[in-house]
Write a structure and sequence with these properties.
- The protein is of the alpha/beta class.
- The chain has ten helices and eleven strands.
- The longest helix is centred in the first third of the chain and has 17 residues, at 2-18.
Length: 290
């Protein structure tokens, strides 16, 4: 009997080990885990245009692009709000302006075509990251769609192909990947912003941006924690993810020549599909990034 008990316990232990989290999940499973590494760029002299750099995710994109040695041209209504990101730089640094010899921040609004065109007039723009946000009451009900339309127009005029656009879990055909409580918000308090997000995505799948090399990035519950370096592409319900990891994924989408999720809208998280933590603190919400 004791010998049988040892055998059973050994089998149970082996089974538990087989299903324990690991640093790699096969692509054939329901989530694909990507360990991000710093890739080679499409060109050494490329510049990334960042729209929404005064927001928490856009600020991470600008900062991380500079850390990779890329040039960055950003558009912000209030350039002084483009500061160091908390996730990558720590809470004490968030009041410090983001400055770098390879960074230029222009004042303007993404809803003004001339302001968007001015970003591309800087020259050398070869890719774009869009991380717009803000309360509908502050930025309007169609800011995402209108602003992204202006960006697409400028990209086509300047023969720029690669773009990553941050939307949200629950947008488009990912509604069932959001937890129920978040769906309730989507149907009620956040109905207008999700209408705008859905229309923004449609610009690429059914509109003027369909010929671009786009990636629609749908993150799970956003936090301002330090980057984990682990990004899961989820087919089921998504978990949480630091904004710093979202930024890393977006930069991969615009800098890696063979990025695997072009023309797609992956849902991403750092916690697999097993949990959801929506950080509702003031630090996590940040200011509007239009």
């Amino acid at each position: 009997l004791d010998k049988m008990r040892v055998i059973v316990l050994s089998l149970l232990a082996a089974g538990a080990a087989a299903f324990a989290p690991s640093s790699f999940v096969a692509p054939s499973l329901r989530s694909a885990r990507i360990g991000r590494t710093r890739p080679s760029s499409l060109a050494l002299d490329m510049k990334v245009a960042v729209f929404g750099a005064s927001g928490l995710t856009g600020g991470e994109v600008a900062y991380q692009a500079l850390q990779r040695g890329e040039g960055v041209v950003a558009l912000a209504r209030t350039p002084s709000k483009v500061t160091k990101p908390q996730g990558s730089c720590g809470e004490a640094a968030v009041t410090e302006p983001l400055t770098d010899a390879n960074l230029k921040v222009l004042a303007g609004s993404v809803t003004n075509q001339a302001d968007v065109d001015a970003v591309f007039a800087e020259g050398g723009i070869t890719s774009v990251v869009v991380a717009l946000g803000g309360k509908t009451a502050d930025v309007g009900e169609t800011m995402l769609t209108d602003g992204t339309t202006n960006i697409i127009n400028a990209m086509k005029a300047n023969n720029v192909k690669r773009i990553a656009v941050v939307t949200s879990i629950g947008a488009g055909d990912s509604e069932n990947q959001a937890p129920f409580f978040f769906k309730v918000l989507m149907w009620t308090a956040m109905k207008k912003i999700f209408t705008d997000k859905n229309n923004q995505e449609a610009l690429f799948f059914n509109g003027p941006g369909k010929d671009l090399e786009f990636c629609i990035v749908r993150p799970g519950g956003l936090t301002v924690e330090a980057p984990t370096g682990v990004i899961n592409v989820i087919e089921g319900q998504a978990g949480s993810i630091p904004r710093a990891d979202v930024a890393d994924f977006c930069l991969g989408a615009v800098l890696e020549p063979d990025f695997p999720y072009l023309k797609q809208a992956p849902c991403i998280s750092s916690l697999g599909g097993t949990g959801w933590t929506k950080d509702r603190s003031a630090a996590a919400r940040g200011a509007m990034a239009e």
